[in-house]
Specification:
The complex is a heterotrimer.
Chain A: H1 3-6, H2 26-54, H3 58-61, H4 67-70, H5 73-98, H6 102-132, H7 141-174, H8 178-211
Helix pairs in contact in A: 2-7, 2-8, 5-6, 5-8, 6-7, 7-8
Chain B: H1 18-25, H2 39-72, H3 89-116, H4 123-132, E1 137-143, E2 148-152, E3 157-160, E4 162-166, E5 171-177, E6 182-186, E7 190-195, E8 201-205, E9 211-217, E10 229-235, H5 237-248, E11 253-254, H6 256-262, E12 274-276, E13 278-279, H7 283-292, H8 310-316
Parallel strand pairs in B: 1-5, 4-10, 11-13
Antiparallel strand pairs in B: 1-2, 2-3, 3-12, 5-8, 6-7, 6-9, 9-10
Chain C: H1 26-48, H2 52-60, H3 65-96, H4 115-149, H5 158-180, H6 205-233, H7 246-277, H8 291-325, H9 332-345, H10 361-373, H11 375-389, H12 398-421, H13 423-429, H14 433-462, H15 469-494, H16 510-539, H17 581-587, E1 601-604, H18 609-625, H19 629-647, E2 653-656, H20 658-667
Antiparallel strand pairs in C: 1-2
The chains are: A mainly alpha, B alpha+beta, C mainly alpha.
């Protein structure tokens, strides 16, 4: 059977032009695109984690320190708590968005942003400590990928923090316009995604490194 | 020690396209892959012909079908016109079926061929050795920027840009590189294997017939790549023994420290053969270890920038001698 | 400084010194003078004719998907010419430098190019042809055609679309800049590690290569997000999935590939960058690096990229062949399945790019078999095209000739591809000219489809047909040139000759190299014919005016609007009733294109931000290449600032008032003949010409012009 036969439309009854067609839904289209963007970022992480897998053998330490010798679980624990708390509080801001409460959105976003900054401080102290002990990315293949992953993740957090700052100004300026709403939804996706990635970073970089 | 120099029964040669045969058979056509002179390359050739024949069985009828459809159904031609005809279960089955079956057959052959010429343990050489016994000759190959050093660890000699092997005897290679990735290829004897710094790869070959064969690096490794070719001389066992003896008389020696000087980037314009009468044992493993520990023979800027007249200058101060 | 650099470095200018201008290389100086004169002429002409405002309003700041597509194609064609010039130099050098007694000119031992110079040329040739010629050409075509085929007014993100264009252009500009400031990478377009590490490639060439590549990768990923979102979200009512034209399906499949594979390339390049700039050990031979990691990461992108290029080409063939066979495409559903099968398999074959890397036989077997699997859907497509012609009425107009050339090239290219997939064959000719000839046939398949597509859709975009005579000459010289060059190259492949040689030691290969040079002569003549083709077409543009359904047998929705397409594509969004909607309308006599009763149309405004971002990214690339850290930081700061400032801009949209639409629509008279074209007439399209109304041209955002406007591309 011909596939086109199944969907035959009677020409006499056919609508040729979709008058008053409202077009696409702007917020839905923007968020869809942001999902696609996150897929590309997930692929970046996938490639980085694959590299981590490749560079995690004994030979890749090249005589340098092994991760179990220098990973301090306190910092990773602190980063986990702050990041997840921040994501939770950003969730409150989205609840407030549904209620149209401008102050609550800005307020909870401010707390989420502060927690993001705390995360960055912890990560900075952690990395600074390692550097102080002569543990640099240049020491071995393993350390190269180790630092690349944690710094790349921290850069995402930095972007999220800047983004929140910008959004707070925009909400204050123009309220809940379509532009602001889709950006808030995308930022939620972005921020949650960082937490999801952190689970992988925590598991494969910190935990696996510690037990290795 | 000898493996019988018997030719494969090559039924497929009977259906070899005549043009290919004429060109490949012509002694100085330069089409080296069509003139295999070793067990490995002959095995390749065998499967290659099979592959081509099977592919042509599909591609030629398809081409004819295309031309027929183009002619018959041209506008104003005799073909009937059915503007909405666009589906036929029978044709769908055929158009999926033919490629599926072809790929099935070719996959089977491909896998078989891969095991037959597996560089680490070639099925064909293992089989030949089982039948005839025989001790292989071992050769350690080190690719530098941009020369080939062939070390014969059993004989403690080494040869630069010249590989001498006995006919009919398996030759087993271990290969590594000092700096970048090269590819070891002797078109008439054996296919490629990557030669990688800090790593060891393997290859093996058996030469059928005495003669001089070309060999070269097949992977881009820098300015000296085009001059990174070597002669492969397949000689009789007696001649090989003689060559070893004369090489051992060579006054030039190669120590670890000497190798560090030898490995400095150098473009062997116009070929640069030499032999070393004595080679410090374990040199091959030493090189791998050094590279893994981060030893780098840096390419000077002069060899990567501009280079106008550079090689003429280098050729004028052609270097050879003890390292 | 983080790493050991050979040569000088200063905080103000980084590695940039006066010695980096290659004024002592005659070839480059001549090129520079020619480029400078051309640029001067173009700039002077723009000033003299007072076109700066026009250029700025209509092109540089545009967010119109058609104009962006045209600019992509223009970029692709310019870079195609550059890549061709490179090819010409490679072939000349190889024909000259054979055997120890061959002469050497201009400071080379043999031939006229030093290894360093030839290395740059073949690297640039490969990179340009893949990412700055083929990719922009195809992305441009998808940009123009996909929204039209699905009945959309624009892409999902017009602003992002422009950004993708300008990032790609920034990359291309950096490649061109490397000719005159510093040098380009000299080791092959896909890069080698550890050869591309700092100790072995101490110059800026690799950095140029890396950042241009990176910029185009970012641009293409943005483009793929846009196209996927457009296809998923912007289809006209009634455009169900199984009514989607095959080209749109192919675009979807290909952009899914791009979306998922380009990020991996970015990682591969970024890690190399870290090695070169920070001194990490990802790909080094020692210190715990793993050089095979680069090959894996690169080809995990590299092979899907091949299908990223070929799938739109297949889509184009699937559009052209039914149109000129005057018949429905055979096996629509299998075409869709095959496209996605190719897309899917593309992810599992990358290891065949390094079969010789001594993987175990079981690994090589796996990738050998998966590679062969690609042959199944590809074979199905070939058969489907043949059965589309079967029982049709095939008209041999130029687009069809190109599509059929692509089909024949695909047959040969596909067969040799299967031979490469046979790993024991690959052991013999990996990195050899057999492989080179194979993939050149495949990219020529792509090129032939692109030329077919340009012939086919050109009238839709510009409102007039390209003339046929010079185009046919161009076609046949391309056929002969390709035949001579690449059949000979296959023979050299049987000779065992490998790629990238600047000197060929074996004189037996000399005759083949000279025959290939003869093929290049045909190519050169073909380029001249192409120029004549364009010139004559532009000259006779009024004579060659075309109506909406240019070829008379167009099938999909893009033929259901005027030629040239107005800025808003469709005055009223079409409602789709059938798979080949336009054919269905023609069969039922519903070809009226002026439904009347227009409404205002909501459109995005023009913006200069993407152009500025492109310029800043180019500055960033330049700064990083030359390690001018202050400039790099400045560019990053400006980029971030510009993005944030743009996000505060609330005035990004506008509405084209109903009366303006009315005016444009009444200016177009695409009187359709109710019947299909009569038999026997070559190219017998029976269509009244639409009358062009080039007023101020284009509905631009900044000026609130209400005068009638066409996509003013025919000026």
């Amino acid at each position: 059977m011909s596939a086109s036969a199944a969907q035959k439309v009677d020409p006499a009854q056919a609508t040729l032009w979709a008058r008053h067609y409202a077009g696409h839904d702007m917020i839905g289209t923007r968020t869809f695109g942001f999902w696609l963007y996150m897929l590309t970022d997930a692929m970046v992480y996938a490639a980085l984690f694959a590299s981590l897998g490749v560079l995690s053998h004994a030979v890749n330490l090249a005589g340098g320190p092994s991760p179990s010798a220098f990973i301090n679980p306190i910092y990773a624990y602190g980063e986990t708590i702050t990041l997840f708390l921040s994501v939770l509080i950003y969730g409150y801001s989205m609840v407030a968005l549904k209620n149209g409460n401008r102050g609550a959105v800005i307020g909870s976003m401010f707390v989420a942003m502060l927690l993001g900054i705390v995360y960055l401080v912890i990560a900075g102290v952690d990395i600074g400590n390692m550097f102080a002990h002569g543990i640099f990315p240049q020491v071995s293949g393993f350390l190269s990928i180790f630092f690349t992953i944690i710094i790349y993740h921290a850069l995402h957090i930095l972007v999220g923090v800047v983004w929140m700052l910008v959004m707070m100004v925009q909400i204050a300026r123009e309220g809940f316009s379509a532009n602001v709403i889709y950006r808030l939804i995308n930022l939620r996706l972005f921020w949650h995604f960082q937490a999801v990635i952190w689970v992988f970073v925590f598991t494969f970089v910190y935990l696996q490194g510690m037990v290795a | 020690m000898f493996i019988k120099n018997k030719r494969y029964k090559m039924w497929a040669q009977m259906v070899l396209p005549p043009a290919l045969l004429a060109l490949g058979g012509c002694s100085d056509s330069g089409l080296y892959l069509l003139k295999p002179e070793g067990l490995m390359s002959r095995t390749f050739y065998h499967y290659f012909i099979l592959d081509v024949v099977i592919m042509l069985l599909i591609v030629i009828p398809t081409t004819l079908l295309t031309i027929w459809a183009m002619w018959r159904y041209r506008k104003g031609g005799k073909g009937s016109y059915h503007p909405t005809w666009s589906h036929s279960n029978a044709i769908e089955a055929i158009v999926w079926g033919i490629p599926l079956v072809t790929v099935g057959i070719l996959s089977y052959l491909s896998v078989k061929a891969i095991y037959d010429v597996n560089p680490y343990n070639p099925g064909v050489i293992a089989k030949a050795q089982k039948a005839d016994g025989g001790d292989p000759v071992e050769v350690d190959v080190i690719a530098t920027d941009w020369r080939w050093l062939f070390i014969y660890p059993q004989q403690h000699i080494a040869s630069v840009n010249q590989l001498v092997v006995p006919v009919g005897t398996p030759v087993k290679f271990r290969l590594t590189s000092t700096s970048v990735v090269n590819d070891f290829l002797i078109p008439q004897l054996v296919g490629m294997i990557d030669v990688m710094p800090g790593m060891r790869t393997k290859q093996a070959l058996v030469a059928d017939k005495a003669g001089t064969y070309i060999g070269f690096s097949a992977d881009y490794s820098g300015a000296g790549l085009s001059w990174m070719h070597f002669q492969t001389k397949a000689v009789s066992a007696a001649q090989f023994a003689q060559w070893v003896k004369s090489a051992q008389q060579s006054p030039q020696h190669l120590s670890y420290a000497g190798f560090n000087r030898f490995a400095k980037p150098y473009i062997a314009v116009g070929g640069d053969q030499q032999t070393f009468g004595n080679v410090q044992s374990g040199l091959f493993d030493y090189v791998i270890g050094e590279v893994m520990r981060g030893k780098v023979w840096r390419t000077p800027m002069a060899m990567t920038e501009n280079m106008v007249n550079y090689m003429q200058k280098q050729r004028a101060e052609q270097k050879a001698g003890d390292y | 400084m983080l790493v050991h650099l050979q040569g000088p470095w200063s905080p103000l200018l980084g590695r940039l010194t006066l010695q980096q201008i290659p004024y002592h290389v005659p070839i480059l100086m001549v090129t520079f003078i020619v480029v400078a004169i051309l640029a001067a002429v173009v700039l002077a002409a723009a000033t003299y004719f007072g076109k700066w405002g026009y250029l700025w309003r209509e092109w540089l700041t545009t967010v119109d998907h058609k104009k962006i597509g045209v600019m992509y194609i223009l970029l692709g064609l310019i870079m195609l010419l550059r890549g061709f010039a490179d090819a010409l130099m490679i072939r000349t050098q190889q024909a000259m430098a054979v055997g120890p007694s061959s002469p050497g000119e201009m400071g080379a031992v043999h031939g006229y190019l030093t290894p360093f110079h030839l290395g740059q040329i073949f690297t640039a040739h490969g990179l340009i042809m893949v990412v700055f010629a083929a990719t922009p050409l195809l992305v441009g075509l998808m940009n123009i055609i996909v929204p039209l085929q699905i009945g959309a007014r624009d892409m999902a993100y017009p602003y992002l679309n422009a950004l993708g264009l300008w990032l790609t252009t920034a990359g291309a500009a950096l490649v061109m800049l490397s000719l005159f400031v510093g040098n380009f990478a000299h080791g092959g377009w896909y890069g080698f590690v550890p050869y591309f590490e700092l100790p072995y490639s101490p110059g800026v060439g690799v950095d140029y290569w890396m950042w241009t590549f990176q910029l185009s990768a970012i641009g293409t990923s943005l483009g793929s997000i846009n196209l996927i979102a457009t296809i998923v979200k912007m289809r006209a009512p009634g455009m169900t999935w199984m009514r989607l034209p095959i080209f749109t399906w192919a675009s979807l499949s290909t952009n899914l590939i791009a979306l998922t594979s380009f990020p991996v390339l970015m990682v591969a390049l970024a890690l190399l960058g870290l090695d070169r700039y920070v001194g990490t050990h990802f790909y080094t031979a020692g210190m715990g690096g793993n050089l095979m990691l680069y090959n894996d990461l690169f080809w995990v992108w590299g092979h899907p990229e091949v299908y990223f290029l070929i799938l739109p080409a297949f889509g184009i063939m699937s559009e052209i062949i039914p149109t000129f066979s005057e018949k429905t495409l055979f096996g629509y559903a299998t075409m869709v399945i095959a496209s996605f099968a190719i897309g899917g398999v593309s992810w599992g074959v990358w290891l065949h790019h390094f079969f010789t890397m001594a993987a175990t036989p079981s690994v090589n077997s796996f990738y050998s078999v998966t590679t062969m699997l690609v042959g199944i859907p590809t074979g199905v497509k070939v058969f489907n095209w043949i059965f589309t012609m079967y029982r049709g009425r095939v008209r041999y107009e130029l687009p069809m000739l190109w599509a059929l050339l692509a089909l024949f090239l695909l047959l040969v290219g596909g067969m040799t591809g299967m031979m490469n997939a046979f790993a024991s064959n690959d052991y013999m000719w990996h990195n050899g000219l057999f492989v080179v000839a194979h993939f050149h046939l495949m990219v020529l398949t792509i090129a032939a489809s692109i030329f077919g597509a340009v012939e086919y859709w050109f009238p839709k975009v510009f409102g007039f047909k390209l003339e046929q005579k010079w185009g046919t000459w161009f076609f046949w010289f391309m056929v002969i040139g390709s035949g001579i060059t690449f059949v000979t190259m296959f023979f050299l492949g049987f000779g065992g000759m490998t790629r990238r040689l600047d000197y060929i030691p074996y004189t037996q290969w000399s005759p083949y190299l000279h025959i290939m040079l003869l093929g290049m002569v045909f190519y050169v003549v073909a380029v001249l014919f192409f120029v004549a083709h364009l010139y004559v077409s532009l000259r006779d543009r009024v004579k060659n005016r075309a109506g909406a359904d240019v070829w008379g047998t167009g099938r999909s929705l893009e033929w259901a609007t005027h030629s040239p397409v107005p800025a808003y594509n469709f005055a009223i969004t079409p409602n789709v009733n059938a798979r080949d909607e336009w054919t269905w309308r023609k069969e039922n006599g519903l070809t009226e294109l002026h439904p009347g009763d227009y409404e205002g149309i909501h459109m995005p405004k023009n913006t200069g931000v993407p152009l500025f971002l492109g310029i800043l990214f180019m500055g960033l690339g330049f700064a990083l290449i030359w390690r001018i850290w202050w400039l790099a930081l400045l560019c990053v700061a400006l980029i971030v600032a510009l993005i944030i400032i743009r996000s505060f801009d609330r005035d990004t949209d506008m509405t084209i008032p109903a009366h303006a639409v009315e005016q444009v629509e009444s200016g177009a008279r695409d009187e359709m003949s109710a019947t299909m074209p009569t038999a026997g007439v070559r190219g017998g399209t029976v269509i009244a010409h639409s009358i062009p109304q080039s007023g101020t041209g284009g509905i631009s955002g900044s000026t609130t012009s209400t005068s009638p406007s066409w996509a003013p591309m025919d000026r």
